[in-house]
Specification:
Elements lengths: L2 H12 L6 H11 L22 E2 L3 H9 L18 H17 L1 E2 L2 H5 L12 E2 L1 H14 L7 E7 L5 E9 L2 E5 L7 E2 L6 E6 L6 E8 L8
Parallel strand pairs: 2-3
Antiparallel strand pairs: 1-9, 4-5, 4-8, 5-6, 6-7, 8-9
Length: about 220
């Protein structure tokens, strides 16, 4: 099947679930009331990941920032760490589950015809970084500070490059991931952490290939 045929096939599969990023935004906003958040146990406190100097972002991130500069701006007046309460924890879990369920994972090569492109999955399809970018936008629209929501590059359990969204909180750094419904602390993912957006400037920071223990029962 050629790329055009592949995309037509994927779009037919998505007709039954036509909600895209805009629908997700409105759905989360509708649920974001004082009575919409049932009690959830907060995660156990964990240590924040350590960074060690600047790292170069991927070329696809640079291209994304040129196209959408506001997405990559950093406001130093925003908090770099979120105070994690039950309402915010429920929001993180809800957004992770909703976006994972509604965006069909597709490689950049099949989707766009290029090896690597960072963009919004506005047609209901996208790969790992596209899915995390959408989660970040929804969380920002819900009132969380962009500065505490950091795009992050890891090496996954297969030894391949993978993008996740790191949420920096006063209880540790937590990961929103399209491979898992659960929101986990970075130590629970089993990934090796390479680099992420910085919190002090637009430069990325090196995470030194810090390893997390392997977790299997998280799907």
């Amino acid at each position: 099947m050629n790329r055009t045929g592949f995309l037509k096939h994927m779009r037919r599969r998505l007709l039954a679930a036509a909600a895209t990023g805009a629908a997700l935004l409105s759905g989360v906003a509708a649920a974001n009331t004082a009575h919409a958040f049932p009690q959830l146990n907060l995660p156990v406190m964990s240590a924040a990941i350590l960074s060690s100097g600047q790292a170069g972002p991927t070329p696809a991130w640079i291209a994304f920032c040129k196209q959408m500069p506001d997405e990559c701006a950093l406001d130093s007046s925003e908090p770099a760490v979120i105070g994690l309460n039950q309402e915010t924890w429920k929001l993180l879990v809800d957004v992770n589950e909703r976006v994972n369920a509604r965006i069909l994972p597709v490689t950049d090569q099949d989707h766009w015809g290029v090896a690597d492109r960072w963009d919004y999955p506005n047609d209901g399809m996208g790969d790992c970084e596209d899915i995390q970018i959408l989660k970040r936008r929804i969380l920002i629209e819900a009132g969380l500070p962009r500065r505490a929501l950091r795009m992050t590059v890891v090496i996954d359990e297969l030894g391949a490059g993978h993008a996740v969204l790191m949420v920096r909180t006063d209880r540790g750094d937590y990961i929103l991931d399209n491979k898992r419904a659960a929101v986990l602390s970075w130590q629970e993912t089993g990934y090796r952490y390479v680099k992420r957006e910085g919190s002090e400037s637009t430069a990325w920071v090196w995470l030194g290939n810090q390893a997390a223990p392997i977790v299997t029962a998280t799907k």
